[in-house]
Amino acid sequence: DILSHIHFIHIPKTGGTFLQTYFKNNKITLNQTHMIKPMFDVSKKYIMWIRHPISRFISAFDHLKYVSSYKNTGNIAIDDISIHNTLVPVVIQTLIMGQSYYTNDLFTLLEQFNSANDVAIALSSDDKLLQSNALKLLNYPDTCLSASYNYHLHDGEFIDKMINNILFVGRMEYMEEDCGKLLKMLNITFLNKCEKIRENIYN
What we know:
This protein is α/β, with parallel strands linked by helices.
């Protein structure tokens, strides 16, 4: 594999699924770390994508609300679930089978907030219980809300120690442009274009 020395730090809700799909459609699989902290491996070169933190926060909240309220209204067969018709195929397949990928406690927390803005407002609420539940939601383990930049980058320690091994940092807001820069840096050319893999299905 021409990219065997490249490791992708996939921070949730920063376009990582798009990037993986883009490379896969061009016959290249990116080794990645997702929802777990990366190793400090000096033999690797690391790439990652970032996004405006407020946009990432809103997207992460909407992602969890989507999962918690998912109804298979189209009666999609489990084998037909894909990244093109759901946000998180594995999670949705689990739900369709009558199981839950997340805990009921998390869903109970989510029911208290209609939007990411509600969560943000609750952080400074005089209602101490509401404030506590907002904090609990933000820090709930193993979700795209809590697994943000500080989690994946070891609270900044990864940057401090591995700065010379970080090859490229792309921006979700400039996905096509930064994909082009990365490919040029890696000296590879893709035949398939950088195209959207799904519509925004939150709305």
